């Protein structure tokens, strides 16, 4: 069971992919950082909304899942490099494991992540799906 | 730097349903102290590596518990935590205590009791070594992280599925001759490739098991050691490095930069080069991890670890025997104990006490990793 403030304070990032940007070096961070590791004390951090498009750097299909994700297995997880530079870990949906490829283009979608039991918080956030050209 | 290993102790590794957390570390500790031929009153301090007593057995304050049940109060006792690198890091803290002149004789333990919870819970607990907010909470698991490293390594360097399997085959073969190992039987490449999928492309026989166990060392300053033994094995180098806790935060997913940086420090302190290492215990929590380790430690060039494994470089009888104990894969991986158990194996090898798995070596190395590579600790041993 997770704490409500812990979930609540990340809503902006989880729902809308809001990261941060350091105005001193122009690097973009997601997950957000309140200190730029490159500029440290010179950091000038502001919020920065990401477009939610990128490419798959690597991926796996999880068959043995943690307790909270038992019902979802097997599911695909990947590291995606966003067009703005940052890399993130995400579930990939609307795609079969056979279709997955390193380098494939993906975009963010809003999805349910997990539930804290039958009476706890329902966690929502980003997952990614392939960008399909018609 | 030079710190003597006076004594070593190990429990049997495995699913030890009848043995408690306290019984495990008391057994390993008693063996190490007897092996060192010292008395309780000779000990100045205790350091213990433990990853998650709090989550596995609802017990924090491990430091006091250990001093208490070992009958060593009021000796100062400190718990050290860096996920699966907790044991290696405890050794480093003991070394710093001795090298600084603060202590003469230090006991270093590592212990984990993992089988008191069910497997799904264990998966969740181990995932706390990843970044909780941005990896684990989204459904990422430990095998999943290493599977993503494996996939990228295969993509960039052409490492094959069979080469990964060969790491496990070798380590199982070595464990047959280790009476303390959890799995003392051989497996084939086909067995690995046909085992249950855990996280594609990794299968069950690519993964280290869930293990209970404890390991212990007695360390002493070079001067103090001479009162007890003529020719001890020495630790002559120590290195530690950090990297991002998340895998996605790293510049390159197919190398482990913390290993490279920790090795650099350890070689420098020891005044030796990678090519002088003659035996090594490396952190093979998954088959891909051993390949990343031998590359990061400089035994082979980056990208060549799979090929080198296939060519037998790391077998007993090869140029650099790796994981003669069976490694984490076959000896077992009680997370907090692993780094200390690696040091026990290298000490036995350099003493010539490794029995049927004995190799000819004067210089050995241990390599312990926390999480997906957020921490790495390397130690170098010499006769």
State the CATH class of the largest domain in chain B: Alpha Beta
Mean pLDDT of chain B: 97
Strand numbers in spatial order across the main sheet of chain A: 6-5-4-7-8
Q: How would the global form of chain B be characterised? A: globular
Helical content class of chain A? under 10%
Oligomeric assembly: heterodimer
Order of helix and strand elements from N to C terminus of chain A: HHEEEEEEEE
CATH superfamily membership of the largest domain in chain B: Thiolase/Chalcone synthase
Which chains share the greatest interface? A-B, 34 and 36 residues
* Share of helical residues of chain B: 25-40%
Characterize the biggest β-sheet of chain A: 5 strands, antiparallel
Question: What integer is the average pLDDT of chain A?
Answer: 94
CATH architecture of the largest domain in chain B: 3-Layer(aba) Sandwich
User: What is the CATH fold-level name of the largest domain in chain B?
Assistant: Peroxisomal Thiolase, Chain A, domain 1
Structural class of chain A: mainly beta
| Stretches with pLDDT under 50, minimum 5 residues of chain B | none
Shape of chain A: globular
CATH class of one domain in chain A: Mainly Beta
Radius of gyration of chain A: 16 Å
How much strand content do the residues of chain A show? Answer: 35-45%
What does this protein look like?
- Chain A has a domain at 52-134: OB fold (Dihydrolipoamide Acetyltransferase, E2P) (Beta Barrel), CATH 2.40.50.
- Chain A is mostly beta strands.
- Chain A is globular and about 45 Å long.
- Chain A is built from 2 helices and 8 strands; from the N terminus they run ααββββββββ.
- The model of chain A has no long low-confidence stretch (mean pLDDT 94).
- In chain B, a hairpin with a 4-residue loop joins strand 10 (363-370) and strand 11.
- Chain B folds into 2 domains: 3-118 and 211-233, Peroxisomal Thiolase, Chain A, domain 1, CATH 3.40.47.10; 125-208 and 235-382, Peroxisomal Thiolase, Chain A, domain 1 (3-Layer(aba) Sandwich).
- The model of chain B has no long low-confidence stretch (mean pLDDT 97).
- Chain B starts with a strand and ends with a strand.
- Chain B has helices spanning 21-36, 53-56, 62-69, 86-99, 119-126, 142-157, 161-175, 189-194, 222-225, 257-270, 287-296, 305-310, 327-331, 335-351, and strands at 3-10, 45-49, 77-80, 105-112, 197-199, 202-203, 213-221, 233-242, 279-281, 363-370, 375-382.
- The A-B interface holds A 2, 10, 31, 57-70, 72, 74-75, 77-79, 87-91, 97, 102, 113-114, 123, 125 and B 119-121, 123-124, 127, 131, 133-141, 143-144, 147-149, 151-152, 155, 196-202, 246-249, 253.
């Amino acid at each position: 069971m997770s704490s409500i403030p812990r979930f609540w304070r990340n809503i902006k990032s989880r729902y809308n992919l809001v990261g941060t940007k350091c105005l001193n070096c122009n690097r973009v961070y997601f997950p957000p950082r309140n200190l730029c590791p490159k500029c440290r004390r010179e950091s000038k951090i502001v919020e920065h909304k990401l477009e939610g498009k990128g490419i798959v750097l690597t991926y796996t299909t999880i068959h043995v899942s943690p307790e909270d994700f038992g019902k979802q297995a097997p599911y695909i997880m990947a590291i995606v490099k966003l067009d703005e530079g940052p890399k993130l870990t995400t579930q990939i949906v609307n795609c079969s494991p056979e279709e997955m490829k390193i380098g494939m283009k993906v975009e963010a979608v809003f999805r349910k992540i997990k539930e804290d039991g039958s009476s706890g918080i329902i966690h929502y956030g980003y997952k990614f799906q392939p960008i399909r050209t018609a | 730097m030079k710190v003597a290993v006076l004594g070593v102790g190990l429990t049997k590794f495995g699913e030890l349903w009848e043995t408690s957390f306290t019984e495990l570390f008391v057994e390993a500790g008693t063996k190490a102290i007897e092996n060192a031929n010292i008395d309780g009153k000779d000990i100045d301090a205790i350091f213990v590596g433990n990853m998650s007593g709090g989550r596995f057995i609802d017990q924090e304050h491990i430091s006091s518990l250990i001093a208490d049940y070992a009958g060593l109060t009021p000796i100062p006792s400190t718990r050290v935590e860096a996920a699966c690198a907790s044991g290696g890091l405890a050794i480093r803290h003991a070394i710093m205590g001795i090298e600084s002149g603060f202590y003469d004789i230090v006991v270093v333990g590592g212990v984990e009791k993992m089988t008191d919870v069910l497997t799904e819970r264990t998966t969740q607990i181990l995932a706390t070594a990843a970044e909780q907010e941005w990896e684990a909470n989204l459904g990422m698991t430990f095998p999943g992280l290493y599977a993503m490293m494996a996939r990228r390594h295969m993509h960039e360097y052409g490492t094959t599925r069979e080469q990964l399997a060969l790491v496990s085959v070798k380590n199982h073969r070595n464990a047959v001759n280790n009476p303390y190992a959890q799995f003392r039987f051989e497996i084939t490449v086909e067995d690995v490739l046909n085992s249950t999928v855990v996280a594609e492309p990794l299968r069950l026989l690519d993964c280290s098991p869930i293990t209970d166990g404890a390991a212990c060392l007695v360390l002493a300053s070079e001067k103090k050691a001479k009162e007890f033994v003529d020719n001890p094995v020495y630790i002559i180098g120590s290195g530690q490095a950090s990297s991002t806790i998340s895998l996605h935060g790293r510049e390159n997913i197919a190398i482990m930069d913390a290993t490279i940086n920790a090795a650099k420090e350890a070689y420098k302190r020891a005044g030796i080069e990678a090519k002088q290492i003659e035996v090594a215990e490396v952190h093979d929590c998954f088959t891909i991890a051993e390949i990343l380790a031998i590359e990061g430690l400089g035994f082979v060039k980056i990208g060549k670890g799979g090929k080198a494994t296939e060519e037998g470089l790391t077998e007993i009888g090869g140029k650099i025997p790796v994981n003669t104990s069976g490694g984490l894969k076959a000896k077992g991986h009680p997370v907090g104990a692993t780094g200390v158990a690696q040091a026990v194996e290298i000490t036995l090898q350099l003493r010539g006490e490794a029995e049927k798995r004995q190799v000819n070596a004067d210089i050995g190395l241990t390599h312990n990793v926390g999480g997906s590579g957020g921490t790495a600790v390397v130690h170098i041993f010499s006769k």
